[in-house]
Amino acid sequence: MKKLGPFVVDIALVLVFCAIGRRSHDEAIAAGLLRTFWPFGTGLLLGWVISVAVAAGREGVSAAQRFDGRAVWPSGVIVWLSTLVGGMALRAVSGQGVALSFVIVAATFLALFLIGWRAAVRVLVR
């Protein structure tokens, strides 16, 4: 669960975020979900790459040994910020909306989803 499981959970939660957004604007969920998901999914993937690189930090210690995708810090925060910033940047260059109100809503929901589940697991495992 420390490696692949959290990545799958993150993908699922970003898909849920995108589906909720489409539904709240009365847009067809299935028809446009990929168009809404790809910028955030790409930002999510980038966040995971950065998180693994940060975990690898010290020479001689492999990222696979040190990396914990369930950690709130730094993994969860890096994944959240990368998903948000990368997602918004890719939406902007692809002609999708990036209104300030949307950025605020996205930041809040993505933090709740991507950091929140990690915090809940941490509390429940203790």
From TrEMBL:
**UniProt entry tagged with the keyword Secreted:** no
**Taxonomy, superkingdom:** Bacteria
Q: What is the lineage of its organism?
A: Bacteria, Bacillati, Actinomycetota, Actinomycetes, Mycobacteriales
Task: Name its species.
Answer: Nocardia tengchongensis
Transmembrane residues, as ranges?
7-25, 37-59, 71-93, 99-121
Q: Which Pfam families match?
A: DUF3054 (PF11255)
Note the InterPro entries from the entry.
DUF3054
What keywords are annotated for this sequence in UniProt?
A: Membrane, Transmembrane, Transmembrane helix
Q: Specify the protein name.
A: DUF3054 domain-containing protein
